[in-house]
Amino acid sequence: MAFSESASAESMQANSGPRRPRILLAASGSVAAIKFANLCHCFSEWAEVRAVATRPSLHFIDRAAIPKDVIFYTDEEEWSSWSKIGDSVLHIELRRWADIMVIAPLSANTLGKIAGGLCDNLLTCIVRAWDYNKPLFIAPAMNTFMWTNPFTERHLMTIDELGITLIPPVTKRLACGDYGNGAMAEPSLIYSTQGEGSRKDGRRSACRVVCLSLVIV
């Protein structure tokens, strides 16, 4: 679905009372992306969700399992949605639309791109254009050797300077068979904190509490 197609529906909702939080979920190319549909389900219980997936992440995501009310964008739509001057630019429109962005999983490759300011796909273009007055969370997922690599430490320092919140990986048996730190936190930890306490102080606070709950592992 093109971004503009949902604009009229949003304007109709404007007079129907407070809107739900707008959550932009994004997945990059890690095996942990097999949990992306579950993550979408968790958030869509209480928020309006749009999803962005890089081309490598599509190898792991079951698109049929994505909730029907979640609009799903891929790298191709960054280009196919634009044909002439005056058309909306997808990564800018998504940046404007979202109250919060959560990248889960965040691969080592995409972490490096973000830290270096690269913007060669829809996800990284959104991050490059992001308003850092709004929360942006990353949930890395990678092998332990990649997580403990000196490059990762440097990249995380840059991420912290930008004001991006790190959702630390957890220690478990990894997809490669190794046991160690580097696995993405479980999506169920989001859903378990979506009760009344996470909604007390408005949209931004609700989003922050729910996402920060991922750190408690």
TrEMBL record:
One Gene Ontology CC term in the entry: phosphopantothenoylcysteine decarboxylase complex
GO MF annotations in UniProt: FMN binding; phosphopantothenoylcysteine decarboxylase activity
Transmembrane helix found in the keyword field: no
Alphabetized Pfam families for the sequence: Flavoprotein
Annotated Gene3D superfamilies: Flavin prenyltransferase-like
Cofactor(s) the protein needs: FMN
EC main group: lyase
The protein's Enzyme Commission number: 4.1.1.36
InterPro entries: Flavin_trans-like (IPR036551), Flavoprotein (IPR003382)
Domain Flavoprotein span(s) in chain numbering: 22-187
Biological process per Gene Ontology, one example term: coenzyme A biosynthetic process
Keywords: Coenzyme A biosynthesis, Decarboxylase, Flavoprotein, FMN, Growth regulation, Lyase, Stress response
Keyword DNA-binding applies: no
Signal peptide residue numbers: none
Pathway where this protein functions: Cofactor biosynthesis; coenzyme A biosynthesis; CoA from (R)-pantothenate: step 3/5
Entry's family note: Belongs to the HFCD (homooligomeric flavin containing Cys decarboxylase) superfamily.
Subunit description: Homotrimer.
The name this protein goes by in its record: phosphopantothenoylcysteine decarboxylase
Species in which this protein is naturally found: Acer negundo (Box elder)
